[in-house]
Amino acid sequence: MIRTKSLVSDLKDVPKTWAFEYYLNLQEKLCGQDVKMKSIFNLKDKNPSMFVYFSANKNDYRYKDFSTDNSGDALNLVQKLFSLSTRGEAAHKLIEDYNQYVLNNGDISIKEFKQQSKYKVTDFKTRTWTNIDQKYWSKYHINSSLLEKYNVYPLEQYIMSKIENEETKELVISGHYIYGYFKKDGTLYKVYQPKIKDTKFIKVKDYIQGMDQITMQVPYLIICSSLKDLMTFVKLGFKNAEAIAPDSENTLIPEHIIHAFKNKYQKICTLFDNDEPGIKAMQKYNEKYDLPYVILEMEKDLSDSIEIHGINKVREVLMPILSIKLK
Fold first, then answer.
1. pLDDT digit string, tens, across residues 31-87
2. In 3-state terms, what secondary structure has residue 35?
3. What is the pTM of this model?
4. How big is the CA angle at 106 (ends 104 and 111), to the nearest 5 degrees?
5. Which CATH number fits domain 2-110: 3.30.1370, 3.20.20, 3.90.220, 3.90.580?
6. Which of 26, 37, 87 is nearest to 66 (CA)?
7. pLDDT tens column, 172-182
8. Closest to 221 measured CA to CA, from 194, 261, 263
9. SS3 category, 167
10. Residue 94 buriedness (CB in 10 A; 0-12 / 13-18 / 19+)
């Protein structure tokens, strides 16, 4: 450990983790791990949507707030928190606050750290469908043939592993309501656990959902927020439109893929959740790719709307909105 007793005048002399620990009032010292918390920028955030994480590429800590789409390094954090105009002002504020902290609290330890290994899905075991599965999916009018078409299968268990201190540690997760999302070739790309809020989705590999199923032989493409919404859109029976979904609303489909889609379809539009994060995500697609977006003023998302109001009512409400957006 190097002990720092004097005040600093250069940003590089401020410990890399201090800004996050201090301004975010973290309950744990950062030593290479990731931290998930409620958004400090969005007081309406009910579920933790802000991440503080160690970036191996930057060799530094950064943050990402999915509820406001705000992200960056320590200076970005300070600049946003205190509504400062420039990074220079943020650096001055950070140094000033750090020096005051040293005066009030004494010596600060500058620690060396490395990125901690994370648990990753390394194995899984499928099982047969049950009445519990049928009850869950049928309330969204999603049947077995549609699940099979999109390669969704129930999992008996999955295993998450990580290497720590040269030893492999494993977690075996099993229970009801665990589903694997697979590519056409059988590769698992996501685990879906609808009854577990914190780990509802576990990403295994990058994949644009629905890519194996689209034909590019119809006029319109709808970008939905999730595979479940995608499948419920299919149940609405719009014969002249196909649907895909990114990994999440906060994941932008790459520009070269959107460009390829524009050459194949007459029109593309987004249909995400009607809450603030969903609308902001659609606005980002609109700003970057000039894609129109649809706000369905019913339940939070398309699948919930179909569950509560039924297919016919949702189709009745959605059809005129889509017709306008796809002109």
1. 778 888 899 998 887 778 899 988 877 778 899 998 888 899 999 999 999 999 999
2. strand
3. 0.73
4. 125
5. 3.90.580
6. 37
7. 999 999 999 99
8. 261
9. strand
10. buried
